[in-house]
Amino acid sequence: MPRLLALLAAIALTACSGDDIRVAPGGQVAPAPPSERVGIRYGSVEVVLVTMPTYATTEEIMVAAEGGTLVPLGALWSDEPARAMTLQLARELGVVTGRVVAPEPWPFRDPADARIDVRVEDFHATRRGTFRVAGQYYVAPEDQGREVARGFAVEAPIQGELTASTVAAARTAAVGRLVVALARDGLR
Q1: Is there a contact between 21 and 61 (Cβ–Cβ < 8 Å)?
Q2: Domain chopping of the chain, boundaries
């Protein structure tokens, strides 16, 4: 009987929440971080808070529709997209490069050897069945090294039907592809 009451209470709470369905960036099962290893010239890297287009600063998961319009999928991200993407970039860049990588504000005593500033222009599910992340990134070395300014466009397939969970998994995979491109093309 206590289990039944707990189940009924959970259903009632879910019903009261309305359309406020939240999905973690990785979906139900987050894809593994990129397994590729990339050697870079810097011992430490700071990731500046990612900037997003206006439509991507909200919690709504957006999908491209006919005529180029963007419409909400009906579910919400569990975290602010810019913050979530910044944290994923820092975490996975550390894994891919084997170096110290952290989001701003830089938490260590000595400054980072380089800063990465990612500015996103596209951040949505496409009609082709992918999740697209596109924009520009900038690498600014603290002392020595080359400054880099590059455009990027990465997509990852949405596996299965278009649901909040499959879009979230594709979003995580697309950012993972960006991580490898940043390390390979921007930090060497």
Answers
A1: no
A2: 37-186
